[in-house]
Amino acid sequence: MNAIVHEGSSPIILGFPHVGTEVPDDIAACLSEEGKNLRDTDWHLDRLYSGVPVSVTTVKARHHRYVIDVNRDPARVSLYPGQNTTDLVPLNTFDNVPIWLPGKAPDEAEIARRLDLYHEPYHRAFAEQIERVLSRHGVAIVFDCHSIRSVIPHLFEGRLPDLNVGDNEGRTCGPQTRAALMGPAQEAAGYTHVLNGRFKGGWTPRHYGKSGSKVEAIQLELAQHNYLASEDLPFAFDDVRAARLRPHLAAMITGLERVALGHLKDNSR
């Protein structure tokens, strides 16, 4: 089962598709030395959000994104056509370094196997939690949580803003949901922010969320230097930086809950 679920009482569901670090032995044996570093993990992101005092539901991927990326379209349609990105089962790291040993990259049959074993169970669990929250509240908001190194020339130029909010240009949520994140982002002194910049939302929010519907979705991509001691191995957690960031995350989640219990619920009647 590639999903670790905690059921909360809130109408908010936090997704963590890239915090998993498990790699089955047969797959690990095919990784290059760089691949074994698992450098492209959303390191300790679930720990960061665990300090936010709202009773949210969480759905975490257990296995690493190199096994299969549960935030990619199973039909392998690119999220960002024309831009450098990674596939359903990535061949290269974010720095464009090969993940797999020569001749050991997964073939189509292996990718199909991983879809069945890891991708589908994660999204089955996610869909079940959406249905559970809908049955309780009548609405649900998916908040997909991500982090990434702030400087990756292969993926983007320059330095990434600290707080990267994405709603796929307004397609996955309405203005109230967007404002619940953008308001605290704009008020967060010392942090930079952007809406629908390099990261507009992965497959998870695009798949589940629709503006004006009973299920909306939004994504936050954090630059990792805001809560890690460094953006390189061993990617240690920094309690001081995390404590500074958490009130802003709490304001976002509290705002989402207020929207879900207010405007969206009224619109769903």
Question: Rg to the nearest angstrom?
Answer: 18 Å
Number of helices: 7
Name the CATH homologous superfamily: Zn-dependent exopeptidases
Number of strands: 7
CATH architecture: 3-Layer(aba) Sandwich
β-strand percent reads 5-15%
Give the termini separation: 36 Å
Helix content: 25-40%
Oligomeric category: single chain
- Major sheet: order of its strands? 1-3-2-4-7-5-6
Provide the structure class.
alpha/beta
Main sheet: strands, sense, barrel: 7 strands, mixed
The chain-level mean pLDDT equals 95
For this entry, give a set of tags.
alpha/beta; globular; 14% strand; 269 residues
Give a description of the structure.
It is globular, with a radius of gyration of 18 Å. About 45% of the residues are buried. It has a single domain (about 5-265), classed as Aminopeptidase, CATH 3.40.630. About 35% of the residues lie in helices and about 15% in strands. Helix 5 (about 175-185) runs antiparallel to helix 7. The mean pLDDT is about 95. It is α/β, with parallel strands linked by helices. It has a seven-stranded mixed sheet, sandwiched between helices. The longest helix has 30 residues, at about 110-135.
